[in-house]
Design brief:
about 180 residues, about 50% helix, mainly alpha
Length: about 180
């Protein structure tokens, strides 16, 4: 899947947090969507070229994920470790310090976004190696329904994912 589809899929996981009572969830939905989108882009650090690899700290030339991406690219192939249950565990460990400062909701949104990336890639023809390092690939969909990255079917899926995100953001606008 392409990065916009992954980002939108990740942002759609924020709907799961809406199941929590409003007084428990004290975060702006925009912050939660940003955390989920970042989590959804992170597994592609293992790709030769990925959007997350080139993200900059606003107002600076600093690309914080570039060194990590270079290290991962030199030791693993795309859809390897970061696209497995090990990757989900590492993402949760990476986000867990946020829980100690009371930011558990963004940490959870980040982890849900990360997991959404794996679900998205498991719906493609290539699938993912969920139980890495085992070579067997996991596919969420039957062969005929699997998406091809960059295809018209993925573009349509991405457009469908836009609507729930727009509705969520509009419902949570603060005057």
């Amino acid at each position: 899947m392409t990065w916009p589809t992954h980002a939108l899929l990740g942002m759609n996981t924020v709907w799961l947090l809406a199941l929590l009572p409003p007084d428990v969830l004290r975060y702006d939905v925009g912050v939660l969507c940003a955390a989920a989108a970042l989590g959804a882009l992170l597994p592609d650090l293992d790709a030769n070229e990925s959007k997350v690899k080139h993200l900059r700290i606003p107002g600076t030339p600093i690309k914080p994920f570039l060194p990590v991406a270079q290290m991962v690219n030199s030791t693993d192939q795309h859809r390897g470790l970061l696209h497995s249950l090990w990757g989900v565990g590492m993402a949760c460990a990476f986000a867990s310090p946020l829980c100690f400062i009371g930011a558990w909701a963004p940490a959870l949104a980040f982890a849900l976004g990360y997991a959404s990336h794996l679900l998205g890639d498991s719906a493609t023809r290539s699938g993912i190696r969920l139980l890495y390092p085992h070579a067997r690939r996991f596919h969420l969909l039957p062969l005929r329904w699997r998406l091809t990255t960059g295809s018209l079917a993925e573009d349509l899926f991405m457009e469908l994912l836009m609507f729930p995100v727009i509705v969520m953001l509009l419902l949570n606008l603060k005057p």
